[in-house]
Amino acid sequence: NKKNKHGISFYSKEQDIYHEGRLTLMSNLRQDLADDRLELFYQPKLASTTGRVVGMEALIRWNHQQLGFIPPDEFILLAEETGVISQLTRWVINRALSDFVQFRAEGYEGDISINISARNLSESDLPGYLTSKLSEYQIPANKVILELTETAVMEDPESGIVALNALTDTGINLSIDDFGAGYSSLSYLKRLPATEIKLDRSLITDILSSESDRVIVQTSIDMAHNLGYDLVAEGVETQEVLDLLTSMKCDKIQGYHLSRPLDREAMSAWLEEALNTACENN
Ligand code: C2E
Ligand code: MG
Ligand code: MG
Ligand code: MG
């Protein structure tokens, strides 16, 4: 039995779903969501040519009362398998939009990205939930981007497209996350109502040393532009990679080199600094 550092078995197979540790963990997650004990961190997204902040991505953080910090990659998968993802996504949407109201009041004019999972696409009331939250917080729909991984859409392309159209009919935008990590092609993706593509970190990591990764990235950038998408690179960790991607006409950049994900207070402070710098440069 493979166990992670928290001593909990993680299988991607359904057979292990009744493992007691996983069930306990998921009932803890439900309870902590209900008690508002999770947190959202925010990572800025910058325009590569101007260096201006144009967006931010909400990333969930769970500090389990006994086990401590558990990375989202570990509990999101479980949440998907057990259906807790429905409650989780609603919690994230609500929290992200209410924090967004505060960031906007502080002068932030960019957009906000929220990650959703493939399982959320089968929830027919999700577009309605989004619409009601947008109106509750008086947020223009076109300021909100939902990020969905490429592999998520590929699981069930036909019904996925129908669900994505229902979501984008609310006026929100769609971004294809982790592009290049799976097997889909841009020619398939152009059937999706997306406005943005995020290149997977695995394509960016070795871009300075790997000629083939550079070719793949440049090809993706050019094709994305020809098809009318914005192109974002995630996982930019150095100035050299930032410079290279800018020269390759990559539109937007995210990564530790610009900022790690920050809690709400730290994000407010980061934005204040960024907005002041932008004013001075005018
Ligand atoms: P993602 O949406 O592709 O998010 C990018 C991940 O890369 C984040 O990890 C972020 O902290 C990390 N990252 C950002 N810049 C860099 C960098 O320069 N270098 C490196 N090495 N990593 C960087 P995180 O926060 O651990 O999230 C992992 C994944 O968990 C996310 O991947 C997303 O798929 C999922 N996730 C996170 N929050 C949520 C959420 O609220 N809802 C859903 N459904 N999934 C979420
Ligand atoms: Mg994402
Ligand atoms: Mg990603
Ligand atoms: Mg990812």
From TrEMBL:
GO molecular function, one term: cyclic-guanylate-specific phosphodiesterase activity
The EAL domain, residue ranges: 22-275
Protein's organism: Litoribrevibacter albus
Keyword Transmembrane helix: yes
Classification of source organism: Bacteria, Pseudomonadati, Pseudomonadota, Gammaproteobacteria, Oceanospirillales
Protein name as catalogued: EAL domain-containing protein
Stretch of the intact protein here: 578 to 859 of 859
Entry keywords, A to Z: Membrane, Transmembrane, Transmembrane helix
